[in-house]
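Sample intake sheet
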Amino acid sequence: MSNHRARFKTGAVLVATTLLLAFSGYHTLFDNRELSEVIVYFIIPIGIIVLIFRENPLHYGLGLGDWRSGLAYTTGGIVLMAGILSVAARMPGFQSYYGARGPDSISLRWVMVNGVALFAWEFFFRGFMLFGLEEGLGWYAAIVQAVPFTLAHIGKPELETYACIVGGTLIGLIGLKVRSFYPAFFIHWFIAVALNVLVRGGLQ
């Protein structure tokens, strides 16, 4: 790829992700938050990849990549986060935030709907943004995508937001290594479900 095209892609991805994040912060499409996030964070980026970049979305982390390494990283990440979450869930900041703003009931339906929304969310950062920036920035793309990811957590428990700086970067580096965003998705989905279960007291 030419330097000119790499620069164009870098600029386009940065502008698009900034606009989409801002739009999502002010608007909910069809009065459905999960559906809105799927449209903004997945369908629109796929459209940009196909219609503007003229590329295959599978090259943006949607393929399995090195699935064996990806599975190992996913398993290790879930085990690590299980230990961290068991401590974090007892902290006052996590108790007050997730106790007040979590789902009314942690049902199987909520788990699946949450998974769909997180699939779109993770593709946005660790698919569209990460691989869209890679050709222009190399592995620094993992750091750059972690910046808006971290800022999007402002308002959540302070420790969680700070953890996103390191966690978001590391999971970005893993994505680049295994050529897939699925480890990030499954780890994030586990975190979201486990944290709510630990704070609110189990599936219902």
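Comment: The chain has a mean pLDDT of 93. The helical segments are 3-26, 33-52, 67-88, 92-101, 108-137, 141-151, 158-178, 182-200.
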